[in-house]
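batch job 7 of whatever, protein = TM2 domain-containing protein
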Amino acid sequence: MNPLPEWERFRVLRAEAEFAAVKKDTRVAYAIWVLLGIFGGHRFYLGDTGRSIAMLFTLGGLGVWTLLDGFFVGRRVRAVNRSRRAAIMARYGILDA
């Protein structure tokens, strides 16, 4: 297997560092859900502004959305991270496996 050229390796490292700076943590999302879930705090953290505002004004759909989100927070964090990583890698012209 051919090692990457030095300039290519630096480009990959720069892309990885940029992703690490914007990556969301599942534990933090669940902690925010526990503390501020009824106000949509975990949704604000993940960048779902429209749903966050809806949760804020309806108190988490009177608690129903908040309870349901407990099952889906981890999946949403993975989806957000996957999307952000793909965007960053595409910006650097790197095909992500």
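notes: Helices lie at 6-22, 26-36, 41-46, 49-62, 64-91.
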